[in-house]
Amino acid sequence: MSAVAAPHQIAGVGRWSPDRRYLPVIGTFIVFALMVTIGGLRYENFLSPAVMSNLFINNAHLIVLAVGMTFVILTGGIDLSVGAVLALSSVITATLLQAGWSLALVVPVAVLAGSAIGYGMGVMIQYFDIQPFVATLAGMFLARGLCFLFAPESVPIRDESFIALAGWGVNLGRWRVTAAVLIALLAVAAAWWVLHRTRFGRTVYAVGGGEQSATLMGLRVARTKVLVYVISGTCAGLAGLLFAMFSRSGYALTGVAMELDAIAAVVIGGTLLTGGTGFVLGSVIGVMVLGLIQTIITFEGTLSSWWTKIVIGALLLIFVVLQRILTLRRT
For the whole model, what pTM was predicted? Predict the structure, then answer.
């Protein structure tokens, strides 16, 4: 009985070639590793546990935003509302705590506010056939307007239980893990499990790969498309809570253009804008790349902060071009 050799075996025994789905993520990891190496060689204490810990602490809210955005982009959609929803969640948190509400009630209200806006946008997109760009743009204006309705000025948070939660942390040697970082990592773990271990996660990938084909296969496309926006809104609400823990306040102008940072992190992390291919762990690496750019510019000292946007823009353009090349080769 003869067996047909695989193409890579015909060319040479033992030669291995990675799955094309992983190539964008591998590219992101290579960029991350190069940045860490160059920063470690160029700057003293760049690789210290304190600096690396702060990389996670300062970007915990963006990690959660990117997690939610990954679900949306995997279906071929987009969510422009997450920065405004983050601000709304932080304002709700600060306002209700100032009014004397208990932390146990404030947390679910702040997070569920994002879920409600996400659900509304999902319904508009699926059942009223409105383009995701337009629907989420409307969600962005709604959330930002509600922020000014609740609190036109910055609201400080002085609630002792919230301050205790925000200040909680554990030292693992010279590394520090805060409550915000722990919550962000739990969100990443939950998203990974949902995407790779559940029927819903497989449907998300199927919808992004081809909505019509997913419908013909009998998958619950409508429910999935609504739920990904609910997940994105929920993550934005949670991110607002984390940002409130970071800033100890709620402000209506928080998170302006933060949705663009989340989209950039997801794309740099290897998720195709056309949907169907991507990994939530890649999005986390994308956030770390953005954080490293800011850290390197801070260590350099002589560069303007605007170089952060320039470098992010260049990286984003490079990764979009690479995605286009991979998509053309696949077709």
Answer: 0.90
